[in-house]
């Protein structure tokens, strides 16, 4: 076999990536660009990340106030928190992870039915970020599909494994209810009230499910599963079977920041603040920069549920948060605007949607 070590990303057409073929080496086009190094050079160690018992959102007024305050602090400092006592049954989480793994274990022919590089497709199976198009490749395989309202999309989802629709559907429904509860707490923490976005998110809101698979990598130091990025969403709720997620703590080292490993504890869900909550808070809350590292032996599966306003519904800075000291810091934008950005830009090289929204002083 010809050695593809020095191959460019365009060598690996869809369905033919190094990670799908379990190549025993990492081709050069997967090498992490030097622009990531300053951040990677900083110490990266496991430590505590904010963990919030959200069952208290349904408790007494005092209990709810306490949780809202914890959420506020976590959103300001990390743009990230973990949630416990979220009310989703462990069996629903386990079943969703297992059936997602089952999908990636299917023969290529079955998965390739969903193969697409069209970021507007409501269901698409692909690798890396934008297959073969971006400068750098990532050791990831994924299926992305719309999930709300479920009846509108579920018939487009894979029918194999046979339990896929039912189990992922159940997970999506439960996570969406949770997302509404958390968004209510977030808007309340900003002084906007818990229903500020509830009808817009409930009726027309988008839920995009990213079902990610990171196969074992022969040289995990060389490649990444996903590059440093933030999500466009309001919030992303994430379930994983293994560690690999790292978040960037902007406040560490007097503002130069550092990477923090997110530990895996069974049943715990992760909440990422996305670009649209950064806009909603007029910059008080930061969308969290995160990346995925790889491991040599095990396959990592994650389910990332991205929640936002409707396709064309624009997120803008609320007038309640604007005054002489706090002018509007972001332009308004929609999920559709993000998709337009994705077509034209290369996240693998550090392009960020939120940077296009900032209004310069
Ligand atoms: C994503 C993402 C993290 C993970 O899909 O946007 O950041 O752990 N996923 O897979
Ligand atoms: Ni992400």
UniProtKB/TrEMBL annotation:
Bilayer-crossing residues are none
Keywords assigned by UniProt, alphabetized: Iron, Metal-binding, Oxidoreductase
Q: Which SUPFAM superfamilies match?
A: Clavaminate synthase-like (SSF51197)
User: Start and end of every Fe2OG dioxygenase domain?
Assistant: 202-309
Entry keyword annotation includes Oxidoreductase: yes
Q: Does the keyword tRNA-binding apply?
A: no
Q: Which family does it belong to?
A: Belongs to the iron/ascorbate-dependent oxidoreductase family.
Q: Protein name, please? A: Fe2OG dioxygenase domain-containing protein
């Amino acid at each position: 076999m010809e050695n593809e070590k020095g191959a460019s990303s365009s060598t690996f057409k869809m369905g033919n990536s190094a990670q799908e073929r379990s190549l025993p080496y990492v081709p050069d086009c997967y090498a992490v660009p030097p622009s990531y190094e300053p951040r990677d050079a900083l110490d990266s160690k496991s430590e505590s990340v904010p963990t919030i018992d959200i069952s208290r959102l349904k408790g007494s007024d005092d209990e709810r106030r306490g949780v809202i305050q914890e959420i506020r602090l976590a959103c300001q400092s990390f743009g990230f928190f973990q949630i416990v006592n979220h009310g989703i049954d462990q069996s629903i989480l386990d079943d969703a992870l297992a059936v997602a793994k089952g999908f990636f274990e299917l023969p290529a022919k079955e998965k390739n039915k969903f193969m697409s590089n069209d970021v507007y497709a409501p269901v698409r199976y692909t690798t890396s970020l934008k297959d073969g198009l971006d400068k750098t490749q990532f050791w990831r395989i994924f299926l992305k599909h719309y999930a709300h309202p479920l009846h509108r999309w579920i018939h487009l989802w894979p029918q194999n494994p046979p339990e896929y629709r039912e189990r992922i559907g159940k997970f999506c429904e439960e996570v969406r209810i949770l997302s509404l509860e958390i968004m209510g707490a977030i808007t309340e923490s900003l002084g906007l009230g818990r229903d500020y976005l509830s009808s817009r998110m409930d009726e027309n809101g988008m839920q995009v499910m990213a079902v990610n698979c990171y196969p074992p990598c022969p040289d995990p130091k060389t490649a990444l599963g996903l590059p440093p990025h933030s999500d466009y969403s309001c919030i992303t709720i994430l379930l994983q079977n293994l560690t690999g997620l790292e978040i960037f703590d902007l406040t560490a080292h007097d503002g130069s920041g550092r990477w923090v490993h997110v530990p895996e504890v069974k049943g715990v869900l992760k909440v990422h603040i996305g670009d649209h909550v950064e806009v909603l808070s007029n910059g008080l809350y930061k969308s969290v920069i995160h990346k995925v590292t790889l491991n040599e032996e095990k396959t990592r599966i994650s389910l990332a549920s991205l929640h936002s306003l409707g396709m064309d519904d624009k997120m803008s800075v609320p007038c309640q948060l604007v005054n002489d000291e706090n002018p509007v810091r972001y332009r308004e934008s929609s999920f559709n605007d993000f998709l337009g950005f994705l077509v034209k830009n290369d996240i693998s090289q550090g392009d960020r949607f939120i940077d296009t929204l900032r209004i310069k002083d």
